[in-house]
């Protein structure tokens, strides 16, 4: 979790973005000759994400055509294992898949909440409670509320 929190809470410019180089893939003039797989809206469902990657790995093995997996964001909220999903995606794919993760709106609101919980408390009702619970935090616990107010 420390890596995730560190990444999400990096010093940002006044526009709220982290200045960093963008990764780009040059697709060239012609259409790609390799498959592009897409996985979206994981929402804390680690086992389903693992199943999807296993199916993609089997397809790549059967077709003998390496592809790119585009992860469309929304890794957190709602499901029981948001922390597990982020930990899983931080590590290289166990199947050797080439991943291109994108940030979804739920992931962005999570980041905003971490920067300023008072202003972005609505995130808790969008599945944020489940995300925090996956890290062992209970927002209904009085000690949690006291610690969050005191910084």
What does this structure look like?
β1, α2 (46-63) and β2 (68-71) form a beta-alpha-beta unit. A three-stranded parallel beta sheet has the order 1-2-3, with helices on one face. It is elongated. The mean pLDDT is 84. The longest helix has 18 residues, at 46-63. Helix content is 40%, strand content 8%. It is mainly alpha-helical and 151 residues long.
Topology (elements, then pairings):
Blueprint: H1 2-8, E1 36-39, H2 46-63, E2 68-71, H3 82-90, E3 98-101, H4 105-115, H5 128-134, H6 142-150
Parallel strand pairs: 1-2, 2-3
What's the short story on this structure?
With 151 residues, the protein is mainly alpha-helical. 40% of the residues lie in helices and 8% in strands. The protein has a three-stranded parallel sheet, covered by helices on one side.
Instruction: Examine the secondary-structure arrangement and name the CATH architecture.
Output: 4-Layer Sandwich
Give the helix level as a range of percent: 40-55%
Average of per-residue pLDDT values: 84
Strand numbers in spatial order across the main sheet: 1-2-3
Strand content: 5-15%
- Tally of separate helices: 6
Taken from the alpha-carbon principal axes, the silhouette is elongated
What name goes with the CATH superfamily? Answer: Metallo-dependent phosphatases
CATH class wording: Alpha Beta
Radius of gyration: 18 Å
Largest sheet: 3 strands, parallel
H/E element sequence: HEHEHEHHH
The quaternary organization reads as: single chain
Low-pLDDT ranges: none
Q: How many individual β-strands? A: 3
CATH topology: Purple Acid Phosphatase, chain A, domain 2
Number of domains: 1
N-to-C CA distance: 18 Å
